[in-house]
Amino acid sequence: MNIGLFGYGVVVSAVYEVLNHTPSLMASIAKICIKNPNKPRNIGSEVFTANRRELLDDPAINVIVEMTDDAVAAFEIVKESLQNGKAVVTANKKMVANHLPELISLQSLHNTPLLYESACCASIPVIRNLEEYYDNDLLHGVEGIINGSTNYILSKIFNENLSYPEALKQAQELGFAESDPSLDVEGHDALNKLCLLLAHAYGVIAHPSTLVCHGIHRLNAIDREVASAQGAQIKLVARAVKQPNGEVAAFVLPQFVKPPHLLHTVRNEYNGVVLTSALADEQFFYGKGAGGFPTASAILADLSALRYDYKYEYKKLFLQEPSVLATDVKLNAYVSFQDWQMLPIDAFEEIHEYYSGKSFHYRKGVVSLKKLKASDWWKQPGVSLILQDEAILKEQRK
Ligand code: HSE
Asked: What mean pLDDT is predicted for residues 335-340?
């Protein structure tokens, strides 16, 4: 393998180091394309270029590893690479989630693989498992903490009393956060990853813009007290869960999670994915979801898989009946808000509990996913929407 690498950052330098220490892979890095080749680095300058053509036009480079933070440029690079028969390994979840239909057809048209295990949950091999192993057993649900930065921030707030800005700063300094951290805290990164999970778990190809998503950036001060009073922590949970009618409910929302829920044990930059299936019942995947070396481990696994011509077959999409997204689902929710005007009169289908204080109020009850999708009152500053421990109304679940 003669590799052309795009991007330079925590993950790329980890990949560079790991490849240099894995001679058995017989892979060498021919060129690294970066925005600013003159910045001082700890790798010889002759390997760097700012000109992508030096990689894309070099016939000796047969594998492209794409790890930029620019989804638009990444798509151009990946598209051209696949068209020219260069296999691609990418960590760019936003690019893959935004262009999945085109990427699937490019792979098939040019018979060239695109692998992206590192794009979802970094070190946890969840994509290949969903694609290969959960092929026959009936998969009821995939629920997980799939963004390391937000889990790091929430863990630091709950376990070490750090403030939100302090915890976010640490997540950035440790190289867990995206270069634009709003992608993490507003839930978009988890949503992009959920789109990859949906494709490999259920054959559902959904554009991220079509799914309900909220991050941890609107949490109110009272939310932490409410969580602690019930022995819970707040986690950002992505889920794709089969409903009794066979449709798949998929969304990313903060949630109160308390023991014995497996996701309660997931701390800091770790990710955790709980799979439920008809035969195996419940299974738990746990591992580091962000950071240079954990991400490099998945890149390495993808490079290694290229040696035996591994390709995603998108089995659930092409070889089985793909599932469809659920149109409506009822959720157990909690909403805190600063001002009564922030809460529309029909926000809840049912109200089970309410509290009114000096600076905050909250209501607990049932909300409709369909109505959330059609409105945005729950996204405004001062309003915080969090799912309860039993997120989906019980009678709807299998
Ligand atoms: N910013 C991402 C996260 C990096 O925090 O999970 C890994 O995808």
From this structure: 96
